[in-house]
Design brief:
Blueprint: H1 2-6, H2 8-17, E1 23-28, H3 35-47, E2 51-57, H4 63-69, H5 74-77, E3 78-81, H6 91-109
Parallel strand pairs: 1-2, 2-3
Organism: Aplysia californica (California sea hare)
Protein name: Cartilage matrix protein
Pfam families: VWA
């Protein structure tokens, strides 16, 4: 979420200029250092029209925080893996969900 804050102006401009649905993929292996800030940034992205996928890696991930980062329904936008080496196991499902959802919602907005 740090990147969003640093590039807030560019991100807001990109949301206004483009009629293409933006997809954000957050990968984490733990808990955020500032829970409230992370939730606020995730909300800002979703309120701005982005589809947010949350991927938890390993056993130290906060499930509730992941659910709050991900777009709704979280069972569609949230993934968990046992480690970084397991990320390839979700890539096809993630690609289908990210691209399919973005295309459907972009067409629906026209």
């Amino acid at each position: 979420m740090y990147v969003y804050e640093e590039n807030k102006q560019a991100s807001k401009l990109a949301f206004r200029v483009s009629d293409v649905r933006h997809v954000v993929i957050v990968i984490t292996d733990g808990r955020s250092e500032n829970y409230m800030y992370t939730q606020a940034q995730a909300k800002a992205l979703k309120d701005g029209g982005a589809l947010v996928f949350a991927i938890g890696v390993g056993s130290y991930v906060d499930d509730i925080e992941l659910q709050e980062i991900a777009s709704a329904p979280s069972n569609h936008y949230l993934f968990k893996t046992t480690g970084y080496d397991a990320l390839p196991s979700i890539k096809d499902t993630l690609a289908i969900r990210a691209c399919g959802q973005a295309i459907q919602q972009t067409i629906g907005r026209r």
